[in-house]
Amino acid sequence: MQLKPNAYRLNETVKGIETMTRFALAVLALASGVYTYLGVRGLLDGSANFVFFAAIIYSAAVSVAIYAFWSFMLRFVPLVTLGVQRIALFLTMAIGCVMIIAMSSWLNAAALAGSAALEQHMAVTLQGYAEDLDNAHANALASQSLLPDVQRAAERFAGLAADERENGALTGTQGSGSVVQLLTQMSAQMSQLGASISASRDEVAGLFEEGSTRLANMRELVSTPGAIEPRSDSFQSEAVQLSAVIAALQQTDIAASVKRAAADLSAGFIAPVANGQSADLANRQDQVMETVRVSVAAQSAALSAAADEILATPSVEQRRFVPLSSAEAVLAYWSDFIPSWAGAISIDLLPVVLVLVLMIVNDAMRKDSESLAEAETITAAEMLRAMALFRQMETAGIDVATGQPKPIAEPVPTPEEPAPEVAEAPADEGTVTPIDAAQRKRTDGPRPA
């Protein structure tokens, strides 16, 4: 049995899958409409009924537009063969794809990955708040690093005062004189400054603990399963409280206070009048107090330089949590949800593959049809009609090859043959009566007389 031509089989296959193609296109358009509805619902504000009907109308319009657009492409692209026209259709299809992505695909992605994108937004914000808390705590603790220097200076002044009082180590004379009074005064000032720094340490520790508690609550909100909207609201509340804690930590930075106190040590230095009973003792007291003044100035400069170092550290910028919708979050963190974007776009643009398949198949059918002989493509009915037409043309005297009437052939003259010579009988002198040579039949009547 002779096999059917390949072009015929391709044509029959295309006809066979036409219903399946329409069904698949309708399902894809419906799926895109459903996910578009889920995505657009989170963007609309108003009453529940308004949001519902508005989202339904928009998603229905998207489904109809997608089905109509791809139906046109499936019908026309495979039939166009000229290069310019096919390029124009491809350009039109590209514009339509961009419009479909703009009106549907990003909403599909919002429906597929909206909750995960919001969690990602909260996680990124949480990380920023954690860094801010650590930086603010580090800046506050940097001021605590001045405490050992202050305490050491206070102890040194107190020790010198005690040595002078008991042994006269500075002036050579025991007792509580002007030098002891000055050294005691400097020690008291340093001790007060150290007490201020120590007091701020407890406040810093308390604020850091509170901030850590807020961060723990925020982490729990990010990782806890459930609806994302209530968690986002609670997260925003915790973020506001944490921002207040970070601001309070920055206010407890005592570096500026230490700098001012260090400047007061030098600028506000007041030396008591020497109270020695003799001029020699008074002179020695003045010399020691001058030395103390120089030492206080050096200590003040060192503390001021250390405080400037701490103050030069950049302060923590106030961070603010900005709530986002699911669609905005998907757009903001698109690089983290490429699989979701791929799935959302594929739902809308999968018919591109069907268009290309039909285009290739139709090109193959046209190519195969051009290479087939007419005898391989003619049907039985066409053959019968052709034979009947052939007989009619033969009967009508029409040349089948040219379709014109056949010319009438003129008779060709033949050379005349000489007539056979008849031998003349010799004439008799008498009258000769001809005798009927024909044999008379028995049935004939008597010959007449």
Structural features, described:
The C terminus is likely disordered. With 449 residues, the chain is mainly alpha-helical. The chain has 2 domains: 150 residues, no CATH class; 209 residues, no CATH class. Helix content is 72%, strand content 0%. The longest helix has 62 residues. Helix 1 runs antiparallel to helix 12, helix 2 runs parallel beside helix 4 and helix 4 packs antiparallel against helix 11. Keywords: Membrane, Transmembrane, Transmembrane helix. This is DUF4407 domain-containing protein.
Layout of SSEs?
Elements lengths: L5 H11 L1 H24 L6 H29 L6 H62 L2 H21 L10 H46 L4 H24 L3 H13 L11 H33 L14 H7 L5 H12 L1 H21 L2 H4 L2 H16 L54
Main beta sheet, described? none
- What best-fitting shape do the alpha-carbon axes yield? rod-shaped
Kindly, what is the distance between the CA atoms of the first and last residues, rounded to a whole number of angstroms?
88 Å
Total helical segments: 14
Order of helices and strands: HHHHHHHHHHHHHH
Portion in strands: under 5%
Provide the domain count. Answer: 2
| Number of DSSP-assigned strands | 0
What value does the Rg take, in angstroms? 58 Å
Can you give the mean pLDDT? 78
